[in-house]
Amino acid sequence: MKDPIPSAVESIPIRYFLVEHASLRNQVTTLHLLDAAEVPLLRCLMTMLLMPAETGGMVPGRPPFAAAVTRLHRLPVFRKVSDDTPPRNYWVELESAPLLILMVAGALPEWIGTLAERRDIGILTQSERVLEAVNDLALRIRIP
């Protein structure tokens, strides 16, 4: 049986950026093993490892076991950035990645608004505050 999506679509890589909450940096957890900013990033990393590395991993009807094995061989590519303005080399990548997903654990950084005005982005978060900020941003820059 042939896949319903052409192979050209399957080769689009997804780039994930884990956005660190800078105000938590240098604070420690109760066990003093990790910076407090690392705990939400670890949650993002664990979630990202369940996500596809390319659009081909999102084809409906693919057997779940086969999709899981494929994810083991093709892990998602990601970068870790602060909620401060990203370095220039990361900014270029943020603007040019074919499919961009930002995983935001803390507050929504200011620079995401600038990026959203320039290109389409996806945002994954577990925070209701971040979701509300994303909705406000979408209204402000008139995203349908």
Describe the structure.
- Helix content is 38%, strand content 15%.
- It has 144 residues and is α/β, with parallel strands linked by helices.
- The chain has one domain.
- The protein has a four-stranded parallel sheet with strand order 2-1-3-4, with helices on one face.
- The protein is globular.
- The model has no long low-confidence stretch (mean pLDDT 77).
Backbone shape: globular
Helix content: 25-40%
Overall structural domain count: 1
Percentage of residues in DSSP E strands: 15-25%
Radius of gyration: 17 Å
* Protein structure class: alpha/beta
Can you write the helix and strand succession as a string?
Answer: HEHHEHEHEH
- Number of separate helices: 6
Average pLDDT score: 77
Largest sheet: 4 strands, parallel
Contiguous low-pLDDT stretches (5 residues minimum) are: none
Neighbour order of strands in the largest sheet: 2-1-3-4
Distance between the termini: 36 Å
Number of DSSP-assigned strands: 4
